[in-house]
């Protein structure tokens, strides 16, 4: 980048040579100077090969980025990915240290990573560097305040060790928030709200709309209330006929990051299906419970449109929660990426005794358009329906009603055309 100083470690002759080479090449590069793009053609410009622009003209993409103050626009794709990989990689090391009682070691790793990014000349985003500097300054202030308090006469022995641990934990969290903010600046998830796919609870054939009507975003299939599989469907899990297959769904809760939420898939009595049940708690920055079912090397669902779930809320409170359907393909399994779509149940009543009724949720594969890792967007291709390796259900924190106990009853999971 023009005006960026070369590393001081380079010999002066090499610096001079590098600056001379950059000066010769810079007229052929497209950059943003104030609000105008350089009037040259460019292959390296984010918008591709540009037409010749006047000195006060700006391409539409640069104008949008400049107006938005997008920190991501200041970085090349390679540098942006390196920053994200550095942060997410060190968090994978830091979380086990923190959970194992070594908050001081965790804080040290986070601080080293933050300062490494700040000092990296390739990272040209002032916004990212500022948030990391602020996090380091906050952590240092916590340490200095603790030292000043101890110097004024703190408790000795075991109490002193306990206080030191709390200080280290506060420092680690201050640094973690800064690292998370830096990643969010780069990945910047879309601002629009995701579609919530609702359960359809229409009764029997001949009542309401016919089968197949009302399909699409936000709606389910208008089929019979018995939800009998048809040639247009492939049933993957029939919990009514085989409740024991609930054991194929393993728990994956926020304990992996220090949380204390609980969730599991358990069989219900006498053909009642299975129940995804648990509690979402917010302690230790947690807030999710999930279950996952694996298909080994993957199954081919490319001839289908999406996934259906026959579900009902296990209690009235669970009817007001939203749930996530999680899917992974073969590439996801290797890169720890997943795709999610949101769905909800409705507090409908069945015809027998007024209990909560069953409904069918249809989620098209097209809904899985936001690949993410650890809740943050990543760059990769479209979901591979020809190699579906894992399905999952999740309850995630957010609105107040998302916290606490939940019960989602499931009769069947399958694919529909």
UniProtKB/TrEMBL annotation:
Region described as Disordered: 185-226
Start-end of Basic and acidic residues biased regions: 202-212
Start and end residues of each NADH:ubiquinone oxidoreductase intermediate-associated protein domain: 237-410
Signal sequence annotation: none
Membrane-spanning residues: none
Pfam family, one: CIA30
Recorded family membership: Belongs to the CIA30 family.
Protein name, per record: NADH:ubiquinone oxidoreductase intermediate-associated protein 30 domain-containing protein
Annotated source species: Mantoniella antarctica
